[in-house]
């Protein structure tokens, strides 16, 4: 009877792990395909679960990713983004009090605050400063947290030079983030942030005219996930087309 009880406990534990991995993997699939509808369905399903801190963090990460997709120039669903930012911010504020999630929660709070600039550009100076403050708190709490370095890269990439923007700095931050993701690849291999950072690094390389480096990072992403639509259908073809036009 004791053996049976232990076996049941192990089975249940395995099911919980599988469930969480399944959610993360499905979010990654939605990201790779740029599938807004699928992503929305996943969020709705996760919100109906009992939200442990782990599930809250996975929900928060997924919400953040979908907000970015809502604000994509080809989708432009600002109202949905604004509503989801409010929900995600509430979760991030609660998780920053948990030591295990503190650095990541601060990093995402910084990202969410930065994304508000897309919705309310006239608040850019205040929001930009607040975004940096959150990300710095994230770095203080987790100096080797890859999400912190991904967000530092985003700030450097998209801030005006007057406010500290620098593509060279963005490249360094993205490269560091990728090295930290890959230092614990079993954890991060199925996260959308890992692949998004590779795409962002490729864009930063391209902006500096480092086309070969951009091509290499895009190819690396596609070797891992051949259906990565952002890279396969947009970024890499644009890079190659531009390269051919320059050659001619």
Describe this structure in words.
This protein has twelve helices and no strands. Helix content is 80%, strand content 0%. It has helices at 2-33, 36-47, 53-70, 78-95, 102-119, 124-141, 146-158, 167-183, 185-188, 192-207, 211-224, 229-247. Helix 7 packs parallel to helix 10 (192-207). With 248 residues, it is an all-alpha fold. It starts with a helix and ends with a helix.
Concise summary:
The chain is mainly α and 248 residues long. It contains 12 helices and no strands. The termini are far apart.
- Percent range for β-strand residues: under 5%
Rg over C-alpha atoms, rounded to the nearest angstrom = 19 Å
Query: Care to count the β-strands?
Result: 0
Order of helices and strands: HHHHHHHHHHHH
Oligomer: single chain
The average pLDDT value, as a whole number, equals 89
Helical residue percent band: over 70%
| Amino- and carboxy-terminal Cα gap | 77 Å
Largest sheet entry: none
Shape annotation: globular
The class by helix and strand makeup works out as mainly alpha
Low-confidence stretches: 1-20
* Number of contiguous helices: 12
């Amino acid at each position: 009877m004791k053996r049976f009880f232990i076996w049941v406990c192990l089975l249940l534990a395995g099911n919980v792990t599988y469930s969480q991995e399944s959610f993360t993997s499905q979010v990654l699939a939605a990201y790779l395909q740029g599938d807004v509808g699928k992503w929305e369905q996943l969020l709705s399903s996760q919100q109906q679960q009992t939200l442990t801190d782990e599930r809250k963090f996975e929900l928060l990460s997924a919400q953040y990713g979908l907000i970015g997709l809502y604000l994509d120039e080809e989708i432009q669903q600002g109202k949905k983004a604004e509503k989801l930012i409010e929900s995600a911010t509430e979760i991030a504020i609660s998780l920053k009090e948990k030591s295990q999630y503190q650095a990541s929660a601060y990093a995402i709070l910084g990202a969410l605050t930065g994304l508000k600039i897309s919705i309310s550009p006239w608040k850019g100076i205040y929001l930009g400063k607040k975004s940096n403050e959150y990300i710095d708190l994230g770095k203080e709490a987790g100096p080797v947290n890859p999400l912190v370095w991904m967000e530092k890269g985003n700030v450097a990439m998209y801030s005006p030079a007057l406010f500290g923007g620098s593509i060279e700095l963005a490249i360094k931050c993205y490269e560091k983030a990728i090295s930290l993701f890959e230092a614990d690849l079993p954890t991060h291999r199925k996260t959308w942030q890992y692949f998004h950072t590779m795409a962002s690094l490729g864009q930063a390389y391209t902006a500096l005219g480092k086309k070969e480096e951009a091509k290499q990072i895009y190819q690396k992403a596609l070797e891992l996930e051949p259906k990565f639509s952002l890279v396969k259908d947009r970024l890499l073809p644009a890079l190659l087309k531009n390269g051919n036009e320059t050659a001619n």
